[in-house]
Amino acid sequence: MPRISKVALGSTAALSLALTSCMGAGANIPSASTPITQAEARTGAEAHPQLLAEFGGAMSGPHAQYVEQVGRNIAVRSGLGNAQSDFTVTLLNSSVNNAFAIPGGYIYTTRQLVTLMNNEAELAGVLGHEVGHVAARHSQRRQAEAQQNTLFGVAGAILSGIFLGDSGIGQQLSRGFLQGSQLLTLRFSRSQELQADELGIQYLTRAGYDPHAMATVLQSLAAQNALDASLQGRGDARVPEWASTHPDPASRVQAAMRRAAGTTGVTNRDTFLTRIDGLVYGDDPKQGIIEGRQFIHPELRLSFTAPQGFYMVNGTRAVSINGQSGQGQLSTAPYDGNLSNYVHRVFRALGGNRQTLAPAALQQTTVNGLPAAYGTARVNSGNGQVDVVVFAYEFSNGQAYHFATLSQAGRSGVFTPMFNSMRRISRAEANRVVPRRIDVVTVRSGDTVSSLANRMAYDTAREQRFRVLNGLGSRDTLRAGQKVKIVVRGS
Predict the structure, then answer these.
(1) DSSP 8-state class, residue 9
(2) Has residue 165 been placed in a domain?
(3) Per its UniProt entry, what is the enzyme's top EC class, as one word (predicted)?
């Protein structure tokens, strides 16, 4: 969620033409790419500022410089540009595991995905995979298939197929609920993902890296997905299909291993770990943090608790709340001092141009000392009736925030405890919120997985988190002199 946000529920549909996120073996693997065209360069230059705003902004400093160096080195192997300066490589301040590229030589990875990696070859592999999508012009092909669908339309159609049927209101509501989750992407086919894997492996080999890194980073991503599912109480090991940006990495590991067989190269493990030491891990307090079921934003001075059985994803513009019995988000919109007007405007934005959406009645109340207003609209959809609730709060800084939730008709009460949990936090409580960071340590004689895992800045699943973070299997042990990552608290 933004540091100070006054954005409305709007559309970033302009991004749909270019965004090629994923992190799919196709025919016609290009041995040399067509260079970046002027049209592609213009497209990338126009989309770049919007992407920075949507994904937490660009990081600077030594961590970002290192990622830029590795990214440019691998990107030039694609043939899209003749010089490293032809590419713009950005480390994004996002806590979501994500990487993508857009036409024009723009390549991105989130800091969270970087912290999951364990050597420089893996970083180069991820960025090379994304460059492969651009080299194969996958976004243009998917755009041609989608034609009239925008970025939100594609993602919204997936959600509406599960929850709302194919109604126009379903797709429009989905746009609102998915905005800001940082999980919105133009999905690629399996063959395109495999093709990008293969291209990334080619680039790794050309650059002298160990091509097995493509498989090991996919393996770590699959393990992280499984751990997240376990921690969030989900039954499967994948992000829900309607929100997945990295579809089924586990199924691609063996294919990547087969392609890399018989080839070796450098990994630069110790160099990589030294260069990412101190990188922020998880949520940045400037964007709010998630601790279990609690969300707390020290700069906006607010906090709430998600319902039991739900999990949250913290995005740049909104916090998404997801569960089997409903979805929702916390966001904000322009506020003129009238909560009733605010709620009605949010409903109209959710309804969009295709259908007028308004609450049956509007209620005024107070929640933990905060003036509040809420209303419910019942909507007919292909899968039956659903309830849309907007619950808004006025804060003393002249800003309003609201939940927008979606559930089956008559079941919106699952969100009532969350609505009632919204509160303003004290300055002292806000000051106690500090970020987690990566701390690279050298294993000493007598250190074990268990002893180092106990230093992780978490109350639960310390050993599981430590193993996934360091790419360790359930039976792997440590040796003295080995560098490993732990997560600690630090300003």
Answers:
(1) S
(2) no
(3) hydrolase
- First and final C-alpha spacing in the chain: 20
Residue 7 and residue 152: Cα distance in Å, rounded? 17
Do residues 298 and 425 lie in contact, with contact meaning Cβ atoms separated by under 8 Å? yes
402/357 same-domain check = yes
Angle at which helix 190-206 crosses helix 138-146, to 10 degrees, equals: 170
What is the per-residue burial (b if ≥16 Cβ within 10 Å, else e) of 159-192? bbbebbbebebbbbbbbbbbbbbbbbbbbbeeeb
Question: Count of domains in the chain?
Answer: 3
Q: Give the dihedral of Cα atoms 195, 58, 305, 371; nearest 10 deg.
A: -130
Name, in order, each residue with C-beta under 8 angstroms of 292's C-beta and a sequence gap of 6 or more: none
Please give the helix or strand (H or E) that residue 460 lies within, else none: none
**Shared domain check, 455 and 417:** no
- In the chain, % of residues over pLDDT 70: 78
pLDDT at 244: 41
User: Using CA atoms, how far apart are residues 288 and 329, in angstroms rounded to an integer?
Assistant: 14
| pTM beyond 0.85, yes or no | no
Q: Is residue 169 part of a domain?
A: no
